[in-house]
Structure formats: C-alpha cells, structure tokens
Amino acid sequence: MRIALIADTFPPLRTSGAVQLRDLSREFARQGHAITVLLPSAGQRQAWLLEEADGIQILRLRAPCTKDVGYIRRTGAEFLMPFFMRHHLLKSPLANERWDGVVWYAPSIFHGPLASSIKRASDCKGYLIIRDIFPEWAVDIGLMGRGLPYRFFDAIARYQYSVADVIGVQAPGNQGYFKSWGKKPGRKLEVLQNWLDKSVRSRCSIRIDETLLAGRKVFVYAGNMGVAQGMDILLELAAKLRNRSDVGFLFVGRGSDATRLEETAKARRLDNVLFFNEISPDEIPDLYAQCNAGIVALDPRHKSHNIPGKFLTYMQSGLPVLANVNLGNDLSALIRDERVGVVCESNQIDELHALAERLLAQLNIDYGFSERCRGLFESRFSAENAVRQIVTALSA
Q1: Under 8 Å between Cβ of 99 and 89
Q2: Where are the beta strands (DSSP E) in 73-160?
Q3: In 3D, which of 105, 67, 68, 63 has the Cα closest to residue 80?
Q4: pTM for the full model?
Q5: CA–CA separation, 372 vs 339, rounded Å?
Q6: Are 116 and 154 in contact (CB under 8 A)?
Q7: Secondary structure (DSSP) of 238-268
Q8: CA gap 356, 350 in Å, rounded
Q9: DSSP 152-203
C-alpha cells in the first residue's frame, strides 16, 4: 500500500513519540509498503523539504512553531499547522500524489483538516492512532475546567475523530470513551498496542560508574518530566531511601517540570539522585544496561488508560518496573499479571516506599525478571504487529 503518515514529531527529535513513529515507518517499509511521513517544520525557510532515509520518504512542510512556546501561542500555531502543511504540500513534488490510506498520530489533536483533505483527494480510508485523550486528561488533572478553552479543544478533537474510519486506542479501558463514536456505520474502534522496533545500541554518554551512584541499585526514569507525570512523589521516595547507600535514582530527559524537580532535589540535598538532559534514543539500551529497574509515573488524577512508551523500552531491555499510576489503569493489571514489577495506585508515599523495598528485595532472588520483561515486549509490543494491524484495517 501507499501510506501517508501525518505526525508532528519525528527524528531528529528525541521524544518517545518520535522514536515510535520512526520505528513504525521503518516497519511499513520493511513490509513492502511505500510510506511517506508528512511533518510540520518550523525552522526551515523553504516551503517543503523532501528527504529519504531507511526506505522512508519524509516531507517536511513549513509551519508555525509549536514547541517550547507559551500555551496561547502554541494553541494558535497548532490550529494553523494543518492549513500551512496543506498549502505547502500543494507546492511540493507530492502535490498530486494519491495514497491508499492515511494514518495520523495524536497528540496532536489538530491534524484533522490535513487528514480529511488527503482522504478526499485520494478517496482512501483514514486510521487515527490515539495515544492520549486530550483535553480530557487535562481536565482530569486540573489543568483546565470545562469552560470555553475546554469546549474549543474538545470541538477540535471531535472533528479529528469524525475524520477517521478507524481509531486505535492504546488500552482496552479507553474504548469506553469512544463508544458513541463507534456506533456510526463504517467506523471501527480497536486496541492498537504501543510498539517499538528492535533497538540499536550505542555507547551511552552517561556512565553511572563514574557518578555518585556507582555501585548502587539504580532506579532509572527516562522520558518527559511534565505535569502529566506527577513526579514529585518520586523525590519523596528518594528521600525515604536516602539512608540506603546501595540505592540511587537517575532521571534523564526534559520537560516543563525537569528544572524544578532538579532544583528541589538539590535544595533537599538528596545525594542519591542525579539528573541528566535527554540523550539519543540509541543510547537508551546501554543506559538501561547500567540500571536495575525502570520507573513509570503518571499523575494519579488521570482517568484514561496509558501505557507509556518508556514502559516498552524498559520491557525491551529486561528492566522490571516501579510504577506509580492512576487507580484502575490497565497498565496496573498488566504489570501484576505478567509479574514484571510492582505498581502503586494510591499515590501514597508509604505504599510506594514499601513497594520499592519489595522490588529491591526481589531483584536479589528473582532471576526470571528480565526474561519475563523481554517476553512481554516481544509478544505484545512489536512494530511488526502494529503495522499489520493498521494495514488490515485500512484494507478492509
């Protein structure tokens, strides 16, 4: 099939979404499909830039800046983004291209107009991959109420849903939110598990044995540090464990809370905590090889279900997890059923502390942890399975 994939993140960005979309695109190409990735590009002067890598055609289209700007400016830029992309697509060598299917990735919620335009021009089906349900999660954790801003974002999101023929959510618990959407004839709702490709391993620039965490059992968190993660409790946990000279915490990444969390750790003189800026995705496997357990953190006020990309990277590397997530999240049952770590749903520091101590004890005696983690990854979270599922849906 000839597939158009619309997204707003892709390498050289280092976000988990960028890595996922790179891996998905590579797998489309490996399975013999012609994949074209359409991306907004705020920093380029020309209207379009066509590249090719790993058998993937990448078309970067000039659009307003949506990253690392204020909320109001970001909202305006994201609203205009699909129209700029459409305008510059028509100036590119792919202006008259016709695709057999269009796939787009949320976040962002603003891709609807471009996806709709491509669907009409190519007379093809559309598959929407939803990894978070915005603005609902923002209401859940108190970032906004249900006033005018919510109604604006909700209208944008619902328009995007209306464009799709198939919606793939990341966990069974999220299907209920789209129950009414799925009642319309011709629509299909399904669970599309998160995915990662086989990792490429290069030497990590972070060498734990050269830091103050050398010789310790290390809990690692690698990824975004923002309001959706609710990470303050992790510093509370570090404080609870500061008397254990054999335990340390390593935080790697960026985000709206990263600087504040690092400053808080310094102010509290937590000598068992280290922060590093984000690293190349290819360095992650070597980083994890130096650690003992991965951390998953989600704000407890979330009501939707989320299986973060970092959980997949931990499983792929054979790292059991310490998770602090919202009550009832599908991820909790997965961790417990597959015996790949411990999970706290109360957001209470005493329970999280007890679970961390339990995991540390298990690490010394349960030599099957790594095998179970890797087995779970291979059975559920491969890019190969994801591509086959999307192609089947678009072909039906």
Answers
A1: no
A2: 101-106, 125-130
A3: 63
A4: 0.83
A5: 7
A6: no
A7: HHHTTT-TTEEEEEE---TTHHHHHHHHHHT
A8: 10
A9: HHHHHHHHHHHH-SEEEESSGGGGGGGTTGGGSTT-EEEE----BPPPP---
Q: Where are the domains of the chain?
A: 2-195+382-395, 208-379
Task: Specify the CATH number for 208-379; select among 2.60.40.790, 2.60.320.10, 3.40.50.2000, 3.40.50.300.
Answer: 3.40.50.2000
pLDDT tens across 346-379, in order?
Answer: 999 999 999 999 999 999 999 899 999 999 998 8
Q: Cα–Cα distance between 274 and 210 in angstroms, integer?
A: 12
Per-residue pLDDT tens digits for 244-287: 999 999 999 988 889 999 999 999 999 999 999 999 888 999 99
d(CA 313, CA 296): 11
Q: Tell me which amino acid residue 253 is.
A: G
Residue 17 to residue 39: CA distance in whole angstroms = 13
CATH topology of domain 2-195+382-395: Rossmann fold (3.40.50)
Matching CATH topology for 2-195+382-395 and 208-379? yes
